[in-house]
Amino acid sequence: MTPAARLQAAIDIIDKIRDGNAAEKALTNWARASRFAGSKDRAAVRDHVFDCLRLWRSAAALGGGETGRARMLGVLRHHGLDEAALFSGQGHGPAVLSDEEAQAGGEPQGFAAWDLPDWLGARFQAGLGDQAEATAQALRSRAAVFLRVNTLKTDLAGAQEVLAEAGIETQPHVLSPTALLVTEGARKVARSEPYLTGLVELQDAASQAVVDEVPVQPGQRVLDYCAGGGGKTLALAARLGGERVFAHDADPRRMSDLPARAERAGANVDRLTAPKGEFDVVLCDVPCSGAGAWRRSPEGKWRLQPEDLQDLTKVQASILQTCQGLVTSGGILAYATCSVLVEENLEQVERFLAQNGGWECLSHRQFLPEDGGDGFFVACLRKG
Ligand SMILES: C[S@@+](CC[C@H](N)C(=O)[O-])C[C@H]1O[C@@H](n2cnc3c(N)ncnc32)[C@H](O)[C@@H]1O
């Protein structure tokens, strides 16, 4: 496909998303119907679509309309690319711009320039203060790819060496001692030897930093209560030197890949359907708005509604309440989200402490996307 044809494909997919289709589904349907598209074409079209979703509001302003065509025009203008070269009518690309289209559009104003809905722009300002704009701006660009070095099998330098042999260049990152930022060859990771043999995992640097904050020691009974795919479970297992970690999720299907992942990583993970008894450390990485990860899942910022946020905070409070009963006296309850919204983070912790006597907050930390990784929050609470 020519660059212009890829752009036209993205325009068509964006129109499907505007009709109410989920981005992943629209992309899959397009790929099924476009057998001529190779893997590089599919990746390029996907990049255009996700770029447009991250810049959804500002792209409409810059492109002078709400359609896929206007929005992709806005994306090109955002990046300072030559619009006439791509809207050329050549090579299955978009038709030449009309005079009206060429002159339409202007600089986005207000929260459109932050690429947030107004209600979320106001929440960002209220919760993040001076940081609000930088956080919103950071969410407008693509996320970096990070690896976690599996210290059960290798160290940072050892991992970097074998990754380089596989054509993947990396550098250490300040957010976590186990984090490597992929600077070249990111698309090769999932098929590479170091990944397939469990030397490294794909995991955001701030997600790793969250686990670093949790005070665990070998010999302790540790439970990951919202384990999902097990990214943090495996990081906890590495912190424990390979000793057993317990994993639970309300939806056990979310943990179905965990045994294979654990085996590959040399970790010992015991899945529990109904955790009983007491644990020294319970991590609850609760379901949340995902606001810290909107670079990766940009649809979320346009889909989230105030009532969804209210519902999520209720679920989070109820998980905290359940988990506090699983922590032994003197033990740790670690509360984490991949959100930058204060109502899911510090306010949730403050409410918990106000309602539950005998708990002490040992530490809390907000990671922001402008730090390099995703936005995450973690608080470590000790039971008296
Ligand atoms: C943010 S995700 C966890 C991600 C995971 N910790 C990781 O690092 O890959 C939240 C998880 O909480 C689970 N969940 C939702 N409600 C729950 C509940 N009441 N109890 C336990 N898990 C719950 C969801 O199924 C989901 O897998």
From TrEMBL:
Pfam families linked to this entry: Methyltr_RsmB-F (PF01189), RsmF-B_ferredox (PF22458)
Q: What is the lineage of its organism?
A: Bacteria, Pseudomonadati, Pseudomonadota, Alphaproteobacteria, Rhodobacterales
**Residues annotated as catalytic:** 338
The organism's place on the tree of life at top rank: Bacteria
Q: What class of enzyme is it?
A: transferase
* E.C. designation(s): 2.1.1.176
Gene source species? Pelagimonas phthalicica
**Ranges of residues in domain SAM-dependent MTase RsmB/NOP-type:** 135-384
One of the entry's Gene Ontology molecular-function terms is: RNA binding
Residues annotated to bind S-adenosyl-L-methionine: 249, 270, 285
Instruction: Enumerate the InterPro entries for this protein.
Output: MeTrfase_RsmB-F_NOP2_cat, MeTrfase_RsmB-F_NOP2_dom, RCMT, RsmB-like_ferredoxin, SAM-dependent_MTases_sf
What CDD domains does this protein map onto? Answer: AdoMet_MTases
Q: Which gene encodes it?
A: rsmB_2
Its keywords, alphabetically, are:
Methyltransferase, RNA-binding, S-adenosyl-L-methionine, Transferase
Question: What family is it from?
Answer: Belongs to the class I-like SAM-binding methyltransferase superfamily. RsmB/NOP family.
Query: Per its record, how is this protein called by name?
Result: Ribosomal RNA small subunit methyltransferase B
